[in-house]
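Notes to self, Inhibitor I9 domain-containing protein:
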Amino acid sequence: MGSFWSSLLAIAQRSTYIIHLDKSLMPNVFSDHHHWHSSTIDSIKAVVPSSVDRFHSATKLVYSYYSVFHGFSAVLSKDEVETLKKLPGFVSAYKDTTVCSRNSKRSCPRARLAVYEFSFVEGSFTSDLIAAMDQAVADGVDAISICQGYGFIPLYEDAISIASFGAMMKGVLVSDSAGNRGNSVGTVVNGS
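result:
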């Protein structure tokens, strides 16, 4: 019975993590980054014992990033993240966080806009925002405007700031305004 409870605890501790990789260390055997990311997920499945059965979610790749951020997001256990840290090319891991987004009115009626949705009924997550930014840069946009708020995170640990820097390095302006939750003190927040 003890192994049942430890298995249940391991499953409950699964979260989405954003994994930052050094693209220069991608092995030549992979044709693209997506195959490298998928293979990395498969390799940790083989190393870390799985307590997942047909009723629970397994380790899975959520997004593969290649434009503003080199890496991927995946549903992982803490043990799987620790295993990833030992692999070549690993830079850092960030636990996915909820970000707050708000609708805004457009004031330039003749502007050509591309809109990338990252806020869904289930919530708005960092991994979704980075995927939208990644696709926008791949599509050749000149600017990205983000209106969302999240708490203070040191820049070197903030996946959104790192992705914004990656977009800037590709010549894309990233404007990130504060999320607004009302007219009280401390309701306008942006950590970057």
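- The radius of gyration is 18 Å.
- The longest strand covers residues 15-21.
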